[in-house]
Automatic annotation (TrEMBL):
This is Regulator of microtubule dynamics protein 2. GO terms for cellular component: membrane; mitochondrion; mitotic spindle pole; spindle microtubule. InterPro entries: RMD1-3_a_helical_rpt (IPR049039). Its main location: membrane. The lineage of its organism: Eukaryota, Metazoa, Chordata, Craniata, Vertebrata. It comes from Lates japonicus (Japanese lates). Residues 1-22 are annotated as: Disordered. GO terms for molecular function: microtubule binding. Residues 1-14 have a biased composition (Acidic residues). Keywords: Coiled coil, Membrane, Transmembrane, Transmembrane helix.
Amino acid sequence: MTALTDSEEEEERSDAEQRDEEQLVDRLSILLERIDGLHQGTESDKRESLNILLEQREEFGQNSPFLWRLIRAYCDVHDVSFTLEEKKTHAEAGKKVGEEAVSLNPTCAESHQW
């Protein structure tokens, strides 16, 4: 049995943290790819996209690519909604997320677009 030095322990933690971060990035990439596919789909697909993004918001809500897709999903569901109240709800929620996305990353063009 050997004793680990502080730097070896830090390196092990750093490697574990890096693996966790890589897994998070991989999960985000897979999620965004799926969301982009649903965006091209039917009305039902667009509603599913919004629901999936809302479920994942706690985990990825500080990520610009995630947030602008959430804004886009609100726009999509707004466009396919029938009632004025539902359209208003989605427009207001999308605007709020848009403001959050722009303040998080003012240089993200997609956040400004959606």
